[in-house]
Amino acid sequence: MAVVLDDVVLVLLADGPSSAFELWQRHSDIFGEARRVDLSRVMISVNRLERARLLRIEVPATARLGSGNRLGCWLTAAGRGRQAEWLCAVGPDTDIEDVYVRGLLAVEAADAAAFEGFLAAGLAATRQRMRRLAAAEDTQPAHRARTSYDQEVTRALALWLNQLPEQRGS
To answer: What is the domain range of residue 148?
Structure first.
């Protein structure tokens, strides 16, 4: 399953309500310029998630500092369930780039249980991927080279995953 902005928004709401603008800023802070999305895409995502009843949009009861009294987005119980499920849905065939994105989100925004679930799933998937790559019997030079590359990238991913608790401060 590829990373979808809706899922990213749900994870960013894990630690509390935010406006679409704040979600956009946070996305930019986490992923940087290379992965920047337009504010309009975040707003479309928020509206789609509200229609799906995964979040609700409300005018804040009291002014929030720096929010300009923008409409606040709040996770519903269904939204909280989906964000944790998506974050932890990592298997041996999950694209390494997707694992990277989920890892950044888990470090930054996930609650402790979702972070631990992501980490366990990511490490298990990495072990499975390494076993599958070790069992590959490639006869063509290009296939052997690709398998060797995939093994090194998977080793680097495992090392990075093992360092995430330290990055999170857990």
So the answer is: 90-170
Q: How far is CA 79 from the centre of its chain?
A: 14
Residue 86 tokens read as: 């998506």
| Structure token pair of residue 159 | 């090392």
57 with 2, same domain: the answer is yes
3-state helix, strand, coil split of the chain in percent (to 5) is: 65, 5, 30
* Cα(106)–Cα(124) distance, integer angstroms: 16
- 68 and 16 both lie in a single domain: yes
Q: How many CB atoms lie within 10 A of CB 109?
A: 21
At 68, the pLDDT band (50, 70, 90 cuts) reads low
pLDDT tens digits, 41-65: 999 999 999 999 999 998 655 555 5
Quote the CA–CA distance of 116 and 96 in Å, as a whole number: 18
pLDDT in tens, 18-41: 999 999 999 999 998 888 899 999
63 and 104 part of one domain: no
